[in-house]
Amino acid sequence: MNYGHFSEDGKEYIITNVKTPTPWINYIYNGEYFSTVSNNAGGISYIKSPLHGRITRYRINDVPSDRPGKYIYVKDEETGKIWTLSWQPAGYDPKAYKVIHGLGYTVIESFVEGIHARVTYFVPMNYNHEVWNVVLTNKSGKKRRLSVTGYVEFALGHGLIDLINQCDDQHFNRAYFDKDLNALFATKTYWVTETNGTQQQENKEWNQWAFFTSNLPINRYETLRERFLGFYNNEEKPIAITDDKFSNSGTDYGNVVGAINIRLELDSDKSENVVFSLGVLPKERFDEKKNDIPKIVQPGYIERSFKEIENYWTEFLGHTRVETPDKNVNIFMNNWVPYQAKVAFDVGRVASYYYWGISRGYGFRDTSQDVIAVTIAHPEKAKERILLLSRQMFSDGRVYHHFYDDGKGELTRHCDDPGWYILAVTEYIKETGDYSILKEKVSFVDKNDGTVLEHLLAVVNFMKNNLGRHNLPVFGRGDWNDTLDYIGGDDGGESVWGAMFYVAMLNKLIELFQFLKVENIADIIKLRDEIRRNINQFCWDGDWFIRAFGNGGMVIGSNKSKEGKIFVNTQSWAAISNLPDKSKIRQALDSVKKHLDSEYGPKICAPAFKEIDPNIGLVTRCVPGKKENGAVFCHPVTWLIQAECIMRNGDRAYDYFRKLLPNRVDPDIYQAEPYVYSQYITSDEHSSPGKASHSWQTGTAAWMYRVFYDYIAGVRPDYDGLIVDPVIPASWNYIRVERIFRGAKYIIEIENPDNVQSGISYIMIDEKEIEGNKLPLTDKKICRVKVLMGKTIETANK
Fold first, then answer.
1. Which 3 state secondary structure label does DSSP give 509?
2. Alpha-carbon gap, residue 211 to 280, rounded angstroms
């Protein structure tokens, strides 16, 4: 079934059938205030943290699905008919609705009972509230008297406590209506800020006042859910609306809601602008800020705020742009992939339709990787995040696997976590040339003083002290694959992927130090070379690299294994880590194609585990074909694409890239949003192949953004210039790339008349041919570059 399509310019996804297989959501936020909104207006709102700053409730995996949300009810005062401006929870024929998900906003249009409505949901950049901007137009041919009600269900504070302790927690809820400000206010007099279970009761109140207001005079209101919906009722037919029973009273307990009602008369062919706004004010500035509320629902403010959002995303996306013969590629790489990557960076991968946002904070590994997507357009944000990561590191190089605030996190034995810090720092410096960050003062968890450089060296120290019997990384409780969590057993086991990862990260650090002419790095080079030799000596299985050594030397990911014979990561990272034996890398990648590729993309491992093995871990307990147990896990496929580009296989890289595009699969099979990547796609080792899950909050977008521009388009930063090294499908005879790098805009025209997959005949900058394939740094604002692919010149392929 067809549910929608991209707009002509690719900047919007238009849902024409709102009965989507799952809720298809969008994010509207400003960096502090966050909100999700689905095609049926479901979603949550929170301030800063979905755990500690939950404003509204959202019940994941509930029945009916995707509730509650940001609802607007309309009642015809003459006929008594009631509907919502979104199809759920009280809409009419779904054909009467259309949804537009854009970059930082969502629009829901409807035409019901002769009333056309357009609701635009967005969050202004500079004020912590969300706007529901409604335009109602009377197309019925007669005058109409309408009652319009905005509705939200509050959580007010700690998301987990609200979920598991509602019976007690609701005794601290307060709500009242301020007639002078035309606003309903709600808060909680008790607030839990602990992230772990404790019996200690904190003696503090939530630090926010939530407010709900409108630009038109509020006629009636309700603050208690049972009074608004009815005790044995739901959002479909609230008795306050059906029976006209708004209590117009506040509450000092219970399930607090915000329901505000306005009445209006609308002549035929006339329109009325109705604005609802939900937001928060910090209690310490409440008296100062509350008088702003009437101002932030006025049309002029609304118009300016929306324009600022459009400008923000135009600027962010303007740092990279590509034109290829594949229009679908252009739509994703110019709009939705960098957009999703930025959302994941800002949200911290903690809240979505699939994630409550209450069980974990930032992931050190995740956050480090998300930095690489934001470095291009917003390096200042990337630097802030690097310094945040720095403060989660101990002086011996260990880091918190997950963390909430400085000094509040969970230490695990994952062997890879600290290494991602090297990626974040080196990619930031390559992009910006900001070497001063290495001298930036930033504390360790257990030590007040330190620099970013000292943090990098602490990571090296961690790697050196975390080697096992084959001088490969001790597996501990996992590497990037968290579900290989019991391989280590008593002796810790060893991660072969972790070894390749260590080599790759040490390569990056050595490259930086050599560029800066840092002395005394022989020990780092020696460590890298030793791990590299041991990979070659102990980890080749004949046709591919094994995945790990388990307890007592047990081998995982071998042709001799009954299940889980081959894993994708140890084949792709053999290329990424630049192992010296290229024939083995080529054979390993061919084995991936032979044993792991499928209709929906390459699988993470095969064959899937069908028997539980407590000596391997959670992966064997998962249903075959889903998640890490043999699914098409999208994140590592980006590394596979990078590996194929490194090995100059443009056709295969493009084939893998194309298979992962979210709109390629029948949406009734795929089910998740067709405009953003999901964490995984169910593989052919399950009875429902092609079904995607865990959309939005995945590292896939950040990596695909960088892998496409850095390795397929082949335009990637280096410390002293911009490398041009495209690896494209032979069928592409041209590609045009725009890339802003250190203040200059490079417009790069790449021609491929001989239909090769890689190789450059010459490069010209402003009609002057250069040697090699690295564009030098320039003071110019615009540089025009022409590239002819074909006979190969010496390249700086790194």
1. helix
2. 6
Q: Distance (Å, rounded) from C-alpha 660 to C-alpha 664? A: 8
| Neighbouring residues of 29: CB distance < 8 A, sequence distance ≥ 6 | 35, 104, 123, 346, 347
Residue 320 DSSP symbol = E
Residue 687 phi/psi, 5-degree rounding, is -75, -10
Q: Which residues are registered as beta bridge partners of 257? A: 153
Tokens 């409730």 map to which residue? 57
Instruction: Report the 10 Å Cβ neighbour count for 659.
Output: 18
Q: Are strands 744-751 and 782-789 parallel, antiparallel or unpaired?
A: parallel
For tokens 């791990």, name the residue.
531
Q: What CA–CA distances, in Å, run from 84 to 88, 108, 119?
A: 7, 11, 11
Peptide bond into 379 cis (omega under 30): no
pLDDT at 688 over 70: yes
> What span, in angstroms and rounded, lies between the C-alpha atoms of 176 and 186?
7
Name, in order, each residue with C-beta under 8 angstroms of 676's C-beta and a sequence gap of 6 or more.
336, 340, 662, 695, 696, 701
Residue pair 19/114 in contact by the 8 Å Cβ criterion: no
> Which region holds residue 407: left if phi is over 0, alpha if psi is between -120 and 50, else beta?
left
Q: For residue 790, give both structure tokens.
A: 């074909």
Grouping H, G, I as helix, E, B as strand and the rest as coil, residue 691 is: coil
d(CA 653, CA 647): 10
Residue from 378, 403, 377, 379 nearest 390 by CA: 403
SS3 per-residue string spanning 532-597: HHHHHHHCECCCCECCEECHHHCEECCCCCCCCCEECHHHHHHHHCCCCCHHHHHHHHHHHHHHCC
Q: How many CB atoms lie within 10 A of CB 294?
A: 14
The span from the first CA to the last CA of the chain, in angstroms, equals 44
DSSP symbol at 334? I
Query: Catalytic amino acids?
Result: 482
- Tell how far CA 32 is from the center of its chain: 16
**Residue 395 in tokens:** 């002086």
Main-chain dihedrals φ then ψ at residue 334, nearest 5 degrees: -90, -15
Q: Are 374 and 381 in contact (CB under 8 A)?
A: yes
Contact call for residues 253 and 45 (beta carbons, < 8 A) = no
Tokens encoding 357: 């946002």
Local structure of residue 623 (DSSP, 8 states): P
Longest dimension (CA), the chain: 85
Cβ-proximal residues to 261 (8 Å cutoff; 6+ apart), any chain? 147, 148, 149, 218, 219, 220, 221, 246
What is the residue type of 584? Answer: K
Q: In this structure, which amino acid lies at residue 374?
A: V
pLDDT average, residue stretch 100-107:
98
Rg (alpha carbons) of the chain, rounded to whole number: 28
Q: Of 248, 195, 595, whose CA–CA distance to 406 is shortest? A: 195
Instruction: Specify the DSSP element, H or E, that contains 529.
Output: helix 522-538
Element (H, E) at 700: helix 700-707
pLDDT at 196: 61
Q: Write out the two tokens for 472.
A: 């490969």
Instruction: Give the model confidence (pLDDT) of 338-370 as tens digits.
Output: 999 999 999 988 888 888 777 778 899 999 999
Torsion of CA 510, 511, 514, 518, to 10 degrees: -50
Strand order of the β-sheet with 768-770 is: 320-323, 734-741, 744-751, 782-789, 760-765, 768-770
What is the distance between the alpha carbons of residues 295 and 301, in angstroms, rounded to a whole number? Answer: 7
Model confidence at 198, in pLDDT bands (50, 70, 90)? low
Quote the CA–CA distance of 495 and 534 in Å, as a whole number: 12
Phi, psi of 472 (to 5 degrees): -115, 160
pLDDT at 20 over 60: yes
Average pLDDT over residues 19-36: 97
Contact 626, 733 (CB under 8 A): no
Which of 398, 487, 357, 475 minimizes the C-alpha distance to 29?
Answer: 357
